[in-house]
Amino acid sequence: ILLGVIPNIKQQTIPNIIDSYAIVDIYILPDCPWSKRSLRLLDSYHINYNYYLINSDEDFKKINDRTSFNTFPQIFIRNEFIGGYSELVELSNNGNLNKLIN
Fold first, then answer.
1. pLDDT on residue 4
2. Contact between 91 and 97 (Cβ < 8 Å)
3. pLDDT mean by block of 10 residues, the chain; 102 residues
């Protein structure tokens, strides 16, 4: 059993047009262990990110139309979809996460 709390998470709606200054956008589900792990990994690298809590069918449809994936988290680096937690860990393990961020 994985217990944890995502610190300082507040409800945010998904924008129609993504325009932010953070390099990483992450779409998460409430109480999702993989979403929490992804946020902790990004935090461990001190990477600024925008997060969007998916908690309605409308929010899910917006992100699903963009990626065609139905698993979470869904992570974008520089507006390019990289996948989810396992892809983020792979980028971290092979040293490519820092290359994409910097």
1. 55
2. yes
3. 53 46 91 96 93 95 94 96 97 91 84
The Cα 41–Cα 62 span in angstroms is 25
pTM (2 d.p.): 0.78
Taking a C-beta distance cutoff of 8 angstroms, is the pair 34, 54 a contact? no
Pair of tokens at residue 101: 């961020």
Write the secondary structure of the chain as one string of H (helix), E (strand) and C (coil). Answer: CCCCCCCCCCCCCCCCCCCCCCCEEEEECCCCHHHHHHHHHHHHCCCCEEEEECCCHHHHHHHHHHHCCCCCCEEEECCEEEECHHHHHHHHHCCHHHHHHC
15 cis-preceded (ω within 30 degrees of 0) = no
Tokens 């610190």 — which residue? 7
